[in-house]
Amino acid sequence: MTVKCNKCKEEINKEDLEKNYYICPLCGKLNRMPAKNRLQMLTEKFDVMFNDQKFTDPIDFPSYKEKYESAREKSGETEGVVCGRGTIGGHDTCIFIMEPNFMMGSMGTVVGDRITALFEYATKNRLPVIGYTVSGGARMQEGALSLMQMAKVSAAAKRHSDAGLLYVVCTTDPTMGGATASFAMLGDIILGEPGALVGFAGPRVIKQTIGQELPEGFQRSEFLVEHGIIDGIITRDKMKDTMYDLIVTHKQRQGYANFDSAVEDEKFDISEILKERLKDDEPKTPWEKLRGARQMSRPSGFDYVKYICDDFREIHGDRTMNDDRAIVGGIGHIDGQPVTVISQVKGASMAECMERNFGMPL
């Protein structure tokens, strides 16, 4: 059986496409991945929950029942989202994945009910929530009731957050409308797939409204990272490992690790490196000291992170308008203990200095 790539329109063997994470082997395009395939990629086991809601037609919209049945047949799912409890690297996690083949994951009352119920279950059982969004927005066939789901799910997500629990979102292509204006942007960590369209109104509508050309790549994941809206981009082959790392890092612990043995470990001994980088020829004149402070070879935050942390994952942006390149922030581990790292970075070359605004925060 063959399917067409969304971008190059070439015929591809479906089995080969599935094995390649739904990435076209010819043009590299990320094709939309069904919820069940994401679950297979992400989890060892998964139990579907909240799957017993019945179809509703609250405003008696013309032909809605027929479209709903067609979507069920096409997607193999009963609604636009699959919710449940599964394991990622052996860790219990609540997961919701929106289904692109069910009316483009549009957000109706049942979708809102399921995601809300999942957050409530996760809060009660003190579990993290991982969400994958793909949506054209609120489902017009349910009128204002579909818009009410934004507030309902957001309130459940807030209660989950107030309980000190982790919520990670991965936005996929496309995540638009009411989903973006609510739960897709409420994660503690928001990641995006490469090239995913994420926004409220689409670029075509915005262009027609303001009558101006939009920047290249407008509303794509890369654009959103650059402008501080999401925290980073994640490829499908790294998806499970990344989610596992985030869950483990944020897993609640009793007390802190014992660092007594860690400080003697070789990986923390950077004195020789620093001596080489900061050759101390005291006494120095004030001008020599100033030149020393400005030298490119001075250790940067990245140097310290490399030798202090077991690993480090950078988190971008301020969720408002910008990603300050002079400040690096992220999470890592020191002797197994999760830590937050914040560092001012100047750059080790003229090109890096310009990129980092010479270490001057905005």
Polypeptide structure, described:
- The longest helix has 20 residues, at 143-162.
- The strands form three sheets. Strands 3-4-5-6-7-8-9 form a seven-stranded mixed beta sheet, sandwiched between helices.
- The chain contains 13 helices and twelve strands.
- By secondary structure, it is of the alpha/beta class.
- Strand 5, helix 4 and strand 6 (129-135) form a beta-alpha-beta unit.
Structure in a nutshell:
This protein has 13 helices and 12 strands.
Record keyword descriptors for this entry:
362 residues, 34% helix, 13 helices, seven-stranded mixed sheet, globular, three-stranded antiparallel sheet, alpha/beta
Mean pLDDT, to the nearest integer, reads 88
- Could you say which structural class the secondary elements and strand pairing correspond to? alpha/beta
Helix content: 25-40%
* Main beta sheet strand tally, sense and closure: 7 strands, mixed
What is the N-to-C succession of helices and strands? EEHHEHEEHEHEHEHHEHHHHEEEH
Put simply, the count of helices is 13
- Total DSSP E strands: 12
User: Which strand-content bin applies to the residues?
Assistant: 15-25%
Distance between the termini: 53 Å
Q: What's the oligomerization state?
A: single chain
Radius of gyration: 24 Å
Low-pLDDT stretches are none
Give the overall shape.
Answer: globular
Strand order of the largest sheet: 3-4-5-6-7-8-9
